[in-house]
Write a structure and sequence with these properties.
By secondary structure, the protein is mainly alpha-helical. It is 47% helix and 10% strand. The structure holds manganese (II) ion.
């Protein structure tokens, strides 16, 4: 089964952009809810589920929408927590060069990212991703879909634009949320590791591996 990763910072660490109240609902209710649904769908005594990336890929191919939606939302949220940092950061030199190539400068990326997220219709995610030769792009995905559906793209950053991500703190102002988010919260150190992995140096982030369901292991 898959377990809920703890947040890599305190619940109040992302304030004022993301309040502790929002993080409690978002992590402890929404993310945990997707995780429980995923585990319920995969559960069989003694069975070890495949890695989450494989579960998502298989469910996408076979059209198992409920499994795909819950598995992909678990993946997206686990990635989202890591892609944020409470300490304000700047992209490193390698990323700055790639950003300048694709977006002129960091302000250009910021404008493109905010515009894509603000104009995305309905629920979804806005991503900064890199291709295998280091070309950067901003893209949005609908509902549970993410960059795993785009072979060759490695995600560097993501912001959740489902209403549950911002409504308690910013109400209907998704653009204001994205502006505040992009200025304060991107984990550029993590993005730099992902960017290196995209170009073949090191491995990109993978979801923590599952453990067997009850029946093989001693109950704790
Ligand atoms: Mn969410």
């Amino acid at each position: 089964m898959f377990t809920l990763p703890g947040l890599p910072y305190a619940y109040e660490a992302l304030e004022p952009v993301v309040s502790a109240r929002t993080l409690h609902f978002h992590h402890d209710k929404h993310h945990a809810g997707y995780l429980k649904a995923l585990n319920d769908l995969l559960a069989a005594p003694g069975k070890l589920p495949r890695d989450l990336e494989d579960v998502i890929g298989d469910a996408s191919k076979s059209g198992e929408r409920k499994l795909f939606n819950n598995a992909a939302q678990v993946w997206n949220h686990s990635f989202f927590w890591i892609a944020m940092s409470p300490s304000r950061q700047q992209p490193d030199d390698a990323l700055v060069a790639a950003i300048e190539k694709a977006f002129v400068n960091l302000a250009g990326l910021q404008t493109a990212f905010i515009k894509a997220g603000a104009e995305h219709f309905g629920s979804g995610w806005v991503w900064l991703a890199a291709d295998q030769i280091g070309g950067l792009s901003v893209l949005t995905t609908h509902d549970a879909d993410g960059t795993l559906s785009h072979p060759g793209l490695t995600p560097l950053l993501v912001c959740d634009v489902w209403e549950h991500a911002y409504y308690l703190d910013h109400q209907n102002d998704r653009k204001g949320f994205l502006e505040a988010w992009f200025s304060a919260l991107p984990n550029w150190a993590f993005a730099a590791r992902q960017f290196a992995a995209a170009r073949g140096s090191g491995e990109p982030w993978r979801h923590p591996a599952p453990t067997p369901y009850g029946g093989l292991t001693q109950a704790a």
